Request: fold
Amino acid sequence: MPKTVTEKPSTTPLTGKALLQKVKALGNLPRREAARLCGYYTETKDNQPRANMTEFYDALLAAKGIALDPGRTKDGRGREASFRVCVHKNGSLVIGANYTESMSLQPGDQFEIRLGSKNIHLIQVDGKSDDENLDEE
Reply:
């Protein structure tokens, strides 16, 4: 049975060394309770605390110096790239604007498709025809 904590949660989410120290001090509490006490929670419509586990884990990783996505800026708008896609009913596979923007791709950029046994490789080509490439050599 998890131990009951009468400690008040932090009013602002802890980060860095303060977060690591607090998690260590909390010992073997359930993860959701630790997240709540470290300030990673919101109140539901029924005034019940709801732990924000993703934010809590992200903050723990950052505090330990582990950056899973160092180039990304999170502005809270729209969907984020998930690195997973599904084949649509018509057989199409859509990669999405998140990826093309992060690679600075422009309309008209071309790719060579190479199929593996269980993978697809997209290799960006420079957009020149094979004849133009031969002229430069």
